[in-house]
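Question (not urgent): is this output format expected?
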Amino acid sequence: MTVLPFSPVLADDAEDSPLRSVSTAVAVLDCFAAEPELGATKVAARLGIAKSTACRMLAALAAGGLLERSGSGRYRLGLRLFEYGQLAVDRLLLREVAMPVLGELRETVRETVQLGVAVGTDVLYLERLETAGAGLRFRTDYHRNPAHSSSIGRVLAASDRELTLAILERGLERRTPFTVVDPQRWRRTLVQTREQGYATCRDEYDLGWSSIAAPILSGNERSGRRAVAAVSVVGSTSRMLGPRKPAVVQGVRRAAERITSALGRAGA
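Got this back:
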């Protein structure tokens, strides 16, 4: 595979800034596309930066697991980059498998449907299919929401103890008068989610809008199954949690089960 070179404009320490440091870090990693191992002298020469800057950047990347130091004292790409790459491949597969199912779900429930995964203590929406006339007021920040006030986040936390603890450690921020911010009450919603196989959020992120989500599972009965993503339907509270709720729940759960099965067949 050919890796296209990254060519940022670099400057030395005198003009250092957080964004410039990120740019330099990417450029340093890009150096390893051509050679498996490099030292600070060669990295500095390639990028036109001071050797001291290269040393600090290499050490910082190694501390984060993006690089590792060999016995010779030089550096090579670390396993964390492989893990990130695998995540990217898995999520591309997830989106590819999910899209037809999401489209059918949207046509069935006539509401906006979403596909989301956990990123830190937030939910990142990989895909969203809107329905004409649904009237949902999306803003930029709707592409990444705090997990505690999201039905997808609730579904994911219900099967992931580490995510649950991280969310509680960050704190349950109140978005509306209906946001669950009491830790014990929020934990009880996770128990309920596990028992019923789906989660609901009523007016917790934006007044007047609610959602229902179901988990997409990975693993098997022997090793244990956990939610790696989730499908949700979002719309006005009266449509989501009124008389139509049983039909929406059934549609969301069936969609999540179909995506789970398709991922299993694909070996994910």
